[in-house]
Design a protein that fits this description.
Order of helices and strands: EHHEHEHEHEHHEEHHEHEHEHEEH
Helix content: 25-40%
Number of strands: 12
CATH topology of the largest domain: Isopropylmalate Dehydrogenase
CATH architecture of the largest domain: 3-Layer(aba) Sandwich
Strand order of the largest sheet: 3-4-2-1-5-12-11-6-7-10-8-9
CATH superfamily of the largest domain: Isopropylmalate Dehydrogenase
Radius of gyration: 20 Å
Structural class: alpha/beta
Number of helices: 13
Length: 339
């Protein structure tokens, strides 16, 4: 892993009724064996201290500023206090807590954009809980893009699920399957491919990224016998990316794209819809996969799982994906060259 910068990683609290708070405590407890860089969580210090005591975990909590994180990280979990207090009960999602969830995200973005944090790592949120409280964005990633735009950027966020085993990018994301053919355009595939290739090169250090593009239909359309989209939409996008010097193959049948021999021939696979991307990576790397948002003016990673309300507060949640997200954020921020 690349040595971290002096600026800390900033971890958002996520939904306080989910597993995010206990994963945060576990991550700090495993900081040495996991080789984690200093991180601070934007949360309610009293809530985290009370949760640690309830579990019987020795996690001292220290309220800090971002600049103080590294100095206290070895002896206590650094917490950047929020104005919103947490009253949530584990496993019981409460729309009344939405304000704190949003405050944590907004504050982390502001600090990263002011270069007081090296990168942000987001704990899981529950969109349906935020919607009940009036949240108007489709999801976490879209909210981050909105906040980045408020700072003057014009981002096109791209969700990549990354692991050492496989990296996948859904070109269309949180829309019904029935809406995918209408939403899928050559321009969208090309724009996504450009961002993926650029960030693989600039942030992951891959000198010549190789992209594999999945077909939309079974057998990538079977020369038009199973739909026209692969020939009329996907194939032209592949040709444009190739013409721009991006090593790209496709459209390829999705059912043969993810076995070991196929994976050795590309650095990232572009899938045409959500489950076409997420099913293979969650099968191959469920506990280790990391959600990385490409195309933002700052680095953002996240565990590749949800709030798991059903096991929250029971001490059963595994921190593997959060540990991987923290490590990858440190690796990418070490390469990014950001001031």
């Amino acid at each position: 892993m690349t040595a971290p910068t002096q600026r800390p990683l900033l971890l958002t609290q996520g939904d306080p009724a989910g597993i995010g708070p206990e994963l945060t405590l576990r991550a700090w407890l495993q900081r040495r064996e996991a080789g984690l860089p200093p991180f601070a969580v934007l949360a309610d210090p009293d809530h985290l201290a009370g949760l640690a005591a309830a579990f019987g975990w020795n996690v001292p909590v220290r309220a800090v500023t971002p600049a103080e994180t590294a100095a206290f990280f070895d002896e206590a979990l650094p917490v950047i206090p929020l104005q919103t207090r947490v009253t949530a009960v584990p496993g019981r999602p409460d729309p009344a807590q939405a304000g704190g969830v949003i405050e944590s995200i907004e504050t982390a973005v502001a600090l990263v954009q002011r270069h007081e944090g090296a990168a942000m790592v987001t704990n899981p949120i529950a969109k349906h809980v935020l919607y009940e409280a009036g949240f108007r964005h489709p999801g976490h990633t879209e909210f981050l893009a909105f906040l980045a735009a408020q700072g003057g950027a014009e981002p096109h966020p791209v969700m990549m699920l990354w692991s050492e085993t496989l990296a996948v990018v859904p070109v269309t994301v949180h829309i019904p399957l029935s809406a995918v053919p209408a939403a899928l355009t050559t321009e969208l595939i090309v724009r996504t491919g450009r961002i993926v290739a650029r960030d693989l090169r600039e942030r992951f250090g891959i000198a010549r990224p190789r992209l594999a593009v999945a077909g939309l239909n079974p057998h990538a359309g079977e020369n038009g016998a199973m739909g026209h989209e692969d020939g009329s939409i996907v194939a032209p996008a592949v040709e444009i990316l190739r013409a721009e010097g991006i090593e790209t193959t496709g459209p390829l049948p999705a059912d043969t794209l993810f076995h070991a021999r196929a994976r050795s021939r590309y650095d990232a696979a572009l899938a045409m819809y959500h489950d076409q991307a997420l099913i293979p990576i969650k099968t191959l790397a469920f506990d280790e996969a990391v959600n990385v948002t490409l195309g933002l003016p700052f680095i953002r990673t996240s565990p590749d799982h949800g709030t798991a309300f059903d096991i929250a507060g029971k001490g059963l949640a595994r921190p593997d994906s959060l540990l991987a997200a923290l490590k990858l954020a440190a690796r990418l921020s070490g390469r990014s060259g950001a001031p």
